[in-house]
Structures
1.
Amino acid sequence: MQWRKYFTGLAFSFVFVVTYFTNKFVLSVLKFTYPTLFQGWQTLIGAALLVLFGKLGWVEMSRISRSAALSWLPASLLFVGNIYAGSRALSLIDIPLFFTLQNSSHVVSGVVLKAFHGEKLQLLNSISLCLLLLSAVNLPLSDPQFNVSGYAWAAVHLSCVGVYRVFKSHYKPSGLSDLDQQYINYLLSVLLLAVAAHPTGDLAGALDFPSLKSRTFHSGCCASALLGFMLLLATVRLQSGFSIEHFGVWIFLSKITAVSLSPFVFHMTMSTPAFICVVVSHAAEALLLYSQRESQLR
């Protein structure tokens, strides 16, 4: 029934917002800026819960062949770069600005599709991508709390997101479901992040972390891992019940909700030009969704 689809979308939006807020709380408020451990913990719990849910028959997990896993390996490497750089950026940048930069990943996807697939861009598509790029480029110039490291990691994050989007839509191996893909992503993430924990200094820093034995810290880390897994399930459920265009709309609405509520949850300082960049970026994303819908109807 139609109301069940809307309930699925609303549930996705709720989990989306709470997940980002929880991650922001641990990374910025508690200042646990050790992404190899933070993301390693999340992906380890995610992989374990996927296996458990598969054994219980609550989700469908197929046997993954070696060839399929190897063909998905480039996407998994992009996923690791996405979550690592995303954690770095989110710890240093406010949520509205983070999503403004993340939106420009559509520009990366458009460039890759144009360069390697020769796809022609419609006029509305081109306008929206230009506005997304313009907002992202002007944001560092208008951010009163500009942080070079934060924006550098955000650039890596949005690049990985953009290329991953193209890989997922054009090079998806046959026989791999979305959950199978995510399981491979989780396993590679745990392996690489565990290896990188010592060379990056995250392991030594975490051992000296002041709030290591804090109940608030433990609760935040457990909540972030469980919410991340719930967001995965909600995403898969939403994708199975809606078209790609409608799925994009629900992600857009979820980001708008997070951007609107974040000033009431976290302290932030935003200038008028930065606010304009945020508004233009999300308006451009709405235009992009509209142009994609129109192209599908033709």
Note: The chain has a mean pLDDT of 89.
2.
Amino acid sequence: MTLQYKITHVFCPLQLPDGDDHSHSNDLALSEALCHSASSYYRHLDNPIKGHWKCVEKLLHNLYEATRLEQLEETLVSSQLESMAVGDVVAYLIRAQNAAVVFRRGAEETIAESFEVSPTVAAVMSSCDKLVCSYPGPAIAVPNVVFGDAVFRLELAHFLCEMNKDNLDAAPTTRKAGTTVSETRDTVHPRYITELLTGILRAVGRPADVQRINKRIGDDVVWRNSHLPWRRSSLWLIIRVVLQTTLARNGLGVDVYKAFVLFFMNGLAGEAVGHGMSDDVLHWISAKLSRRLMKLGESAPNWLSAYRAVGVYKHSKAVV
């Protein structure tokens, strides 16, 4: 079931589930798979790049550690923030607030970024194509003198952990039988992170001018005879956004990001073949991988092109 979840949310095939398939074990499996893939990818890199990639490995490992518990734990968050060195990045999914928080350690300042992780149902359903979203949202630079204070870190960790589990009044509402009720099938407004936390940090920092990216978000809202609709994984979105922005800022660029995503997806494709998934799913996977390799073009590493060529042959043979 965890493999089915990873394939569904990473490749987004035509046949999607009729309702919500999120679970803690599924998030943990996705995070763990990315950690293993990042470690394997490291062995293929040239020496000048390996130093920068260590930051990515640490980022994914910290995210996996935070995901291991069903709720964020204050001691863990505070410890991760304290152990950040210059160039390190940590990210957290604040699920109850439909938001992500990213911290980037610099030589003199730590930049705190936040953004919404799941667009509203109206935004997704009204779009004829993929949504184009800009990431991250607001960014605040906090001096390391302040960020290094133990009391500040503990209060920040406490705030994030409480926001991760508290259902506040940011949920949308609807009218049923003449009564206003919460619309649990829609996403909540991330204001308590993107606005409240941003305002708190601005009191001790300043607005930061950071490099932003635009992403075409492939999401959907599928609902039939279920309590909640199917929505694409928030964790998968956070990982892609943080990886792309981090690699763009440390000089590796978007091509390294795209190559790693292709490497990760190819590993999932091998698992799908090994577990005998249906032919239509394998065909969809193969088409997705081929398109990504084509978009990379000559910037794709030779070893990855050869690795992918073997994969396409195996998948096509399995479909036939």
Note: The CA atoms of residues 191 and 197 lie 9 Å apart.
